[in-house]
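Example 322, ligand iron/sulfur cluster.
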Amino acid sequence: MQWKDLKARLLAVGQVHLTGEPAEQYIARSAAGPGAGGSGAVFFVIGSQRVKLVLDPLSSIEIAHQGNGIAELFFEGQHISGHLLEPGFHCPDQAFITVTGSCIFSCKYCSVPRIAGKRKTIGEIISMVESVRDRIHAISITSGILTSIEEEETYVLDVVRHLSSFNLPIGVSIYPTKTTPDRLKELGVTEVKFNLEAATPELFYRMCPGLNYGLLWEVLDRSVLLFGKNRVFSNVIVGLGETDAELETCIKKLTSRGVIPVLRPLNPVTGLAGTRRPSSERLKTIFGIHKRALEAAGLDPRLALTMCTNCTGCDLVPGSDE
Ligand code: SF4
């Protein structure tokens, strides 16, 4: 089976049952993203390609850890050799840190408000980065919202200011104000990700009451002007109820403006628990649309230095997953 097919099938399930030797050092625990607040996740790797799977003892897929990260994947009657990656923070190769682990908004697909974690101090964040410095090539920052969008931006800017001494590329993904791209650029941030999350405004307002879809487009346009091609990203969730045609329109609108879409299969939690994950066939269809749209716009996800497009764990990424 080709990697792209295998990864699409694994992402359509999303979970794995881990057996064998103790694997604590290979388990990523996250305060945001798929699997946040749960029992953790692992990165299964073949060659230079990887997939992140959330741990669930009830999953039909098994990964048997044989020691030293060497692992066997048992899936659909097949037996596939690979290994587990040791995470930096949240993902391999990066310190991807959630600054504030709670949120005043309640987007239906997101587990951060339910987890209601605390805000990390700048000292804590610096110590986290220092503890994995020898095995990361980037720092990525995301955040919930503790009291207001403006207050969160101010705090995250302060965090970023303190991280510049590491001399690593920094990626930032927060809910923005109009001036967030300019402020991040002034601080020397390398890449930004402002997430549309939904393919249409109707779905967005159903999923994210109180947030502003139009502002996100404005901020993405400004970001491309400031950060340039291949440095601006936006997550769009696959499986919120959009049609393929709606998703295609959204993908093309993003790429034609110089933004690389991050097409994230729905992980049905909180308000969407019980919703079906997108099928592997749908993920492959969308991969084709995504690939053609990126090529037509002259965008290349392999150039990403930070965040999800560099990590590739949770999504099918054209260029990397082929
Ligand atoms: S793709 Fe993004 S959300 Fe998934 S593990 Fe990597 S950095 Fe985290």
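Summary: Residues 280-297 form the longest helix (18 residues).
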